[in-house]
Amino acid sequence: QVQVVESGGGLVQAGGSLRLSCVASGSTLTINAGNWYRQAPGKQRESVAGINSGGTTKYADSVKGRFTISRDNAKNTVYLQMMSLKPEDTAVYYCNCDLKIGDYSYSYWGQGTQVTVSS
Predict the structure, then answer these.
(1) Tens digits of per-residue pLDDT, 43-57?
(2) How confident is the model at residue 27 (pLDDT cuts 50, 70, 90)?
(3) Which of 8, 19, 47, 76 is most buried, by the most CB atoms less than 10 A from its CB?
(4) Secondary structure of the chain as H, E, C letters
(5) Which are the contacts of 3, defined by CB distance < 8 A and separation ≥ 6?
(6) What separation, in Å, do the N-terminal and C-terminal C-alpha atoms of the chain show?
(7) Cα–Cα distance between 83 and 48 in angstroms, integer?
């Protein structure tokens, strides 16, 4: 069974750092593209960062210069390194991967990991 699982969330003080991991597993697959989203209480889910198969990255303006998305193809893992965290970064962070399985591509979401930044 194919699944995408996030980890690495937690409670951190403002100015601190966390690294989130997103692992895709369960079949012979390749991550075409990986994206991180977040959803704060009472707000809509928003895009945070993305990385495509060629390694090109994109970021929301609110996290540029503080967050870095990367990938390890051998481990089928996408990372989100978060630095200089602010209380407004508090949210549930979700990973979405476009996975190539056989001749087809599928979109999978993880269950989310909570990031809480205290002031």
Answers:
(1) 999 999 999 999 999
(2) confident
(3) 76
(4) CCEEEEECCEEEECCCCEEEEEEEECCCEEEEEEEEEEECCCCCCEEEEEECCCCCEEECCCCCCCEEEEEEHHHCEEEEEECCCCHHHCEEEEEEEEEEECCEEEEEECCCEEEEEEC
(5) 24, 25, 26, 108, 110
(6) 40
(7) 14
For residue 76, what are the contacts with CB-CB under 8 A and spacing of at least 6? 23, 24, 25, 29, 30, 31
Cβ burial, residue 5 (10 Å; 0-12/13-18/19+): middle
Residue 25 structure tokens: 């597993």
pLDDT in tens, 82-119: 999 999 999 999 999 999 999 999 999 999 999 999 99
In angstroms, rounded to a whole number, what is the distance separating the alpha carbons of residues 91 and 112? 10
**Non-local CB neighbours of 16 within 8 Å, separated by 6+ positions:** 85, 117
Greatest Cα pair distance, the chain, in angstroms, is 48
